[in-house]
Amino acid sequence: MDIIYLLIPIAIILASVAIWAFSWSVKQGQFDDLESPAHRILYDDDEDMIPEDARQDKDKNRSQDSK
């Protein structure tokens, strides 16, 4: 029964820290834009992951287009 006198204040302190952290992050704008980080991955440049023999040379394509 004595442990409850220790656990209740610890729970109140942890809950107040969690509420403070949430309100701080809302004030700092952490939740303003939830869409663009998910879309940003679609525009990542993956050229280094393409094998050398499967790459299309941009310079070759440009020179063929100009002919």
Structural commentary:
- With about 70 residues, the chain is an all-alpha fold.
- The protein has one domain.
- The chain is built from 3 helices and no strands.
- The chain has helices at about 5-25, 35-40, 60-65.
- The longest helix has 24 residues, at about 5-25.
- The N and C termini lie far apart (about 90 Å).
- The mean pLDDT is about 80.
- This is Cytochrome oxidase maturation protein, cbb3-type.
- It comes from Marinobacterium stanieri.
- Keywords: Membrane, Transmembrane, Transmembrane helix.
- It holds the Pfam family FixS.
- InterPro entries: Cyt_oxidase_maturation_cbb3 (IPR004714).
Question: What secondary-structure arrangement, pairings included, does this model have?
Answer:
Layout: H1 4-27, H2 36-40, H3 58-66
Keywords: Membrane, Transmembrane, Transmembrane helix
Region (Disordered): 44-67
Biased composition (Basic and acidic residues): 52-67
Write a brief structural summary.
By secondary structure, this protein is mainly alpha-helical. 57% of the residues lie in helices and 0% in strands.
Low-pLDDT windows of residues: none
Query: What general outline do the C-alpha atoms trace?
Result: elongated
Percentage of residues assigned to helices: 55-70%
| SSE topology string | HHH
- Counted beta strands: 0
Mean residue pLDDT = 79
Distance between the termini: 88 Å
Number of helices, where a helix is a run of at least 4 consecutive DSSP H or I residues: 3
- Give a quick account of the main beta sheet: strands, pairing sense, barrel closure: none
Structural class: mainly alpha
- Measured on Cα atoms, how large is the radius of gyration? 27 Å
* Beta-strand content bin: under 5%
